[in-house]
Design goal:
This protein is mainly alpha-helical. The chain has helices at 12-23, 25-51, 61-78, 85-103, 127-152, 154-177, 181-192, 249-262, 267-273, 277-290, 299-317, and strands spanning 223-232, 235-244.
């Protein structure tokens, strides 16, 4: 297991760390120490950037997100050097886990000390002691995961998970419409709140409708009735609407593709969505608003921001 080469925003690496603790506690200790060092480095980078003045001319939430992600990745790459903080943490964890394994007590970390050598001899331990040490390593990894999620931002982790989960469906939509996959996932993210606010039936079942497509007179499939916000004359109003319900997310992306390709009013949307990324994000978002896809007067602005965030997440995944 090489956590050093994985994404800093990938919480699954910490799940793997907990699993590895049972098989090889010593290796898990080293990986946990490396992750702790990365978190500390990230905090230093953030403090440094916060202390730097901003002009305000080019500052934006999108830039802040991309910078935060860059710092997370840099913290993973610059750490784990011989004689660094990870070595100190690993020695401390090893010593404390060895003592806990011998006594059968849960792990309790003492303050770090650079002068404490690693004296734990795993080979000399019995099976019961090894099991206790593995449990202690797993406990350390679980605590790391908790702290890690707090530092990285749970929302960011979930957003990255949404992009990864929907990416293959978006690629199929790109083949069908020519619209870049990042744009498709970005729109699904905006409409569904990154999957957290997707449309559901009264019994809680997912309608798999990530694009907020309503069930008009031509729709003969199942529907889900939910309360939504519509803008009439620029004024937001709550009202109950019928939305299309699908059997899977793949069906939702397929239906979105048919809608885009089958309506003349989306012609400009498809043209903008297939252009160069640097010049088409805003064009795509604004053309989607002009097409009447949504009644929100700020829909284009919101869609542009969400697509930019999707692009930043995707770049860190490849």
């Amino acid at each position: 297991m090489d956590l050093q080469g994985q994404l800093a925003i990938d919480g699954r690496s910490l799940d793997q760390l907990k699993q590895a603790a049972a098989k090889d506690p010593q290796a898990a200790v080293r990986q946990a120490a490396t992750q702790f060092e990365a978190m500390f480095t990230q905090m230093l980078l953030k403090s440094m950037r916060d202390a730097m003045p901003k002009s305000g001319l080019f500052s934006s939430s999108t830039e802040d997100l991309a910078t935060s992600m860059l710092d997370q990745q840099l913290s993973q790459k610059v750490g784990n050097r011989p004689g660094g903080l990870a070595d100190i943490i690993a020695r401390q964890l090893s010593q404390r886990m060895g003592a806990s394994a011998a006594s059968g007590d849960a792990i309790k970390l003492a303050p770090l000390s650079v002068n404490q050598p690693a004296t734990t001899d795993v080979g000399a331990m019995g099976n019961q002691q090894k099991a206790a040490m593995a449990a202690a390593a797993a406990a350390a990894a679980a605590q790391l995961q908790k702290e890690y999620r707090g530092a990285a931002g749970a929302g960011q982790l979930e957003q990255a998970g949404f992009v990864k989960k929907m990416w293959s469906h978006a690629e199929q939509a790109q083949k069908a419409t020519g619209v870049r996959a990042e744009f498709v996932v970005g729109q699904a993210a905006l409409e569904s709140g990154w999957g957290a606010k997707e449309i559901r039936h009264a019994d809680g079942r997912s309608a798999h409708n990530l694009f907020g497509i309503k069930a008009g007179s031509g729709w003969t499939g199942p529907v889900a009735e939910v309360t939504t916000t519509e803008y009439v004359g620029g004024v937001a109003r709550k009202q109950v609407e019928k939305f299309r319900s699908y059997g899977s997310y793949a069906e939702a992306f397929t239906d979105w593709s048919r809608l885009m390709a089958g309506k003349a009013r989306y012609g400009e949307v498809l043209k903008q969505g297939g252009g160069q990324e640097a010049i088409s994000v805003q064009g795509y978002a604004q053309s989607m608003q002009r097409s009447g896809y949504a009644t929100d007067p700020r829909y284009g602005e919101k869609l542009e921001q969400t697509i930019q965030r999707t692009i930043a997440l995707r770049r860190l995944m490849v």
